[in-house]
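Tutorial handout. Part one gives the primary structure; part two gives the three-dimensional structure as C-alpha cells.
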Amino acid sequence: MRAKRIDANQNEIVNQLRKIKASVFITSMVGKGFPDIVVGLRGINFLIELKDSSKPNSAKKLTTDEQAFFDTWKGTVYKCETFDEILQIISKQYKISKMNYKKFLSVINSKYEKGTTDDKIECIIDLIKTVVTGNEIQKDVHCINKLREGIHNLSPFKNEPVDFVKWVMAEDVVANDYNPNKVAPPEMELLEVSIMNDGYTQPVVTFPNNGKIEVVDGFHRTRVSKESKVVRERVKGYTPTVIIRKEQSDKNDRIASTIRHNRARGKHQVDAMSEIVLELKNRNWKNERIARELGMDEEEILRLCQITGLQDIFKDDDFSRSWEASDSIHNYEPLTDDISEEEAEHYRTVNTNDPTRIFHTFDKWECHKAGFYASSKDGMTADECEKSYAEFLSDNERFKEALDGVIRDWVNSCEHYLTNKAMNRIAWLGQAAMCYATGIPSKFCSGFNLLTGDQQDKANATALQALNYWMKKYNMEEVSMEDALSIGRQVNIY
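Part two.
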C-alpha cells in the first residue's frame, strides 16, 4: 500500500495546535481514508482531515477512501483547511460540551439524592473525572493534592502525616543541613532498583521552610526521582511527600526526628551525630532530653561528645607502621552539659566530608561484640597475647582465612572502618583478623613487632590484598599500600 501524501500545511497546523496546549497525534500514515490528525483539547477529541487551502478545489476533494471513511464513521469527523477553521470547530463543540455537562450534573444530583452511600461516592468520583482528565499533568496533580488534602482534613487519622501523601516537584525538595545519614554507591543503586521495580512505597518526610520543601527523612529517595531517568519519567518529575507534624516544626525537633528515622534503619554517621549532639547541647538540651528524643542512652551521648573531640586529643598520636595501638588516655575530660559555645566551636569531627564513607553506631560493630576493644584476654597474660599475635600473623594461610571471615561476617564493621580513608586500614584488618580467629583484643597488636621485616611485609601485603578485594566487591577504587596505611594523615580508631 502506497503511503498517503502529506498536505503542505500539516506541519504548520500541528505546531499551532500544540502551542495552544492541544494534544495532536499524526495519523496521516494510517491509510484507508483515516483522517490526517487526531486532536484532543478540554476533554474532547477531534478527527480532522486536512486539505491545503492554496490548491484548487479539485485537489481539495476527499479521496474515495476518505469519503468512505466519512460516510461509515459513527462518530464526528471534520475536513479543515486552516488553523482558524479548526479553532472554530473546537470552540463550538466545547460550548455543546458545557451544555451536556449541565445535563450531566442534573443526572448526578438525582442519582446522589436517591442513592446509597456507595452510590453517592460513585457520583463524587464521576464529578472528579470532570476535573482530573489526564490531559494536563500539572493541573491533574494539583487537583489530586487538593482532593487528598480535603479528605485528610475530615479523616479520623488527620494527626498522622502518612494520611496525606502529597506529590510535589522533585526539584523543589531540598536537603537539610544536619542529616547524618550517608548511603554508599551500591546501596544507592539498590534503592534505585527497588523504586524502579516496587515503586515508591514510602513517601519523603518533609517540612516547609522559607519557601522550600526541606527533607526531614528520605533525601536519597528524592535523589532517585531526580537522578534516575527511568524513575523520573515514570513519576513525571514528582516526588511523594508527607509533612511532619506542626508541633515538630522547631529545628531541634526536626533534627531529633531525622535521627530517629535514621536509627530505626540502623545506619547513620557517628561523626555527624556527635556534631548534632553538640548543636543540641548548645541549644540548652540536657543529656537526659537528648537521649530521650534521639532514642539513645546517656552513656552513648557522652561517647558521642568524646568522639567530637578526638581530632584535637589525638592530633600527635598517629598509628605507627607496626600496627601498635596506644593505651587509653587518662587525662581526658569529657564534655558536659555546661559546654560553652567557644568550646563547641573548638572541637570538630574528622573525615566527615567523604561521600563514600559509611557509619554505624558502635552497637552494630561486630568487632565490638567480639571483644576487639577489650583490655585483656581471659586465661592469657599480655606477653602471651602478643606472642600469639605474632604467631598468628606469621601463619599466612591462617591469616588469609581469618581475613576472609572478617569480610564475610563483620559487614557493619568493615563498612564503618574500611571506608575511613583517614585511618590505617591495614592495621585494622590485622587486628580484626586476630580478634576474629583467636578472640585476642586489638590492645595486644604490638606483637607485630616480634615479626621479622620480611614477615611484616608479607602480612601487610596479605592485608592489602584483602582490603582491595573488599573495595572491588563494593565498586570502590583499589588503593595502594601508602593509602591503606594512611601514612601522614592517620587518626585513631574510636
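Part three, for discussion. The longest strand covers residues 44-50. The radius of gyration is 34 Å.
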